[in-house]
Amino acid sequence: AYFEYAAASRYMASYNLDDDEILLGIVGGSRDGGCDAIYILCNELLVGEDVDVEKTIKRSSKIEIIVIQSKKTPSFAEDVFLKWKDVSSDLLTFDNNVTDFKNKYSPQLLEAFSRIREVISHAARKGATINMKYVYIANADQVADGVRIQQESLPSCVESIVNAGLFACECELVGADKLMEMWFPPDEAELLIRFSCAYAPVPKRQDVFGLVSLDDYYSFLTDDNGRLRGYLFEANIRDYEGKVEVNKAIRGTLESPQGQDFWWLNNGVTILAS
């Protein structure tokens, strides 16, 4: 049970979920259909039970559905993919009633897939992109040919079941080497921020200030995969607080370029760094 939690926690580390959010996604146990953990995200934010799916998903939204199976076994097994194909056929076929499978799958799994179907349905109607990823984590060194064939066939199988235009599926294998990388991620050596013009040092201090374009600031805050570098906010406590009035007003200003220059209305961003 701890390995399932730890594996899910490390794999989802780039999404900056807290311990409670990781635990909420754990569905492993008897009758789990080969799913130890399931996470649904909209624009990299967790879609929890208290999230209004209809209001949250927009046309420009990016939906991610991550299903994780983690085993301490020294090899990948083909039966995991067969379970995934089975549970996808049962619970992602929209003509099927989820409750008809209550004797086959656990209540937690049925609830998770009911939420998945709700999200897919709303996203498809809004024209949002949907990516579903099945992740198989094992303490394995090599991948057998049969496993590789199953890995390659799973996405098309799930895509044909869901049959939505902007829906895509992929399958990832995480072996021993990658598992170690997840457990001990490399320290960030340095980050570079580009100024629009020469920056100015503050006399007798190590501080500097200058103008940075929003594109360059975005590049600074995100990694190579376009995900927010959450660790930057551990010392920099100002973070996005959702759709509060101030943030709505800031967005309104940014979306109205004919108005005043945005930077005149902004008191600047202070970055604490070693």
How does this model look, in words?
The chain is of the alpha/beta class and 274 residues long. It is 35% helix and 15% strand. The chain has helices at residues 2-11, 19-24, 53-56, 79-91, 107-126, 145-162, 176-183, 214-221, 245-254; strands at 37-42, 45-46, 62-71, 129-138, 167-174, 200-201, 208-209. A five-stranded mixed β-sheet has the order 2-1-3-4-5. The protein has a two-stranded antiparallel ribbon with strand order 6-7. Helix 4 (79-91) runs parallel beside helix 6 (145-162). It is globular, with a radius of gyration of 22 Å. The relative contact order is 0.11.
User: Largest sheet, if any?
Assistant: 5 strands, mixed
Count of beta strands = 7
Distance between the termini: 37 Å
Question: Could you estimate the helical fraction of the residues in percent?
Answer: 25-40%
Biggest β-sheet: strands ordered side by side in the sheet: 2-1-3-4-5
Structural class: alpha/beta
Strand content: 5-15%
- Which term fits the overall shape? globular
In terms of per-residue confidence, which ranges show pLDDT below 50 for 5 or more consecutive residues? none
Radius of gyration: 22 Å
Order of helices and strands: HHEEHEHHEHEHEEHH
Number of helices: 9
Mean pLDDT: 88
Distinctive features:
274 residues; alpha/beta; 5-stranded mixed sheet; two-stranded antiparallel ribbon; 9 helices; 7 strands
Short overview:
The protein has 274 residues and is α/β, with parallel strands linked by helices. 35% of the residues lie in helices and 15% in strands. The protein has a 5-stranded mixed beta sheet. A two-stranded antiparallel sheet has the order 6-7.
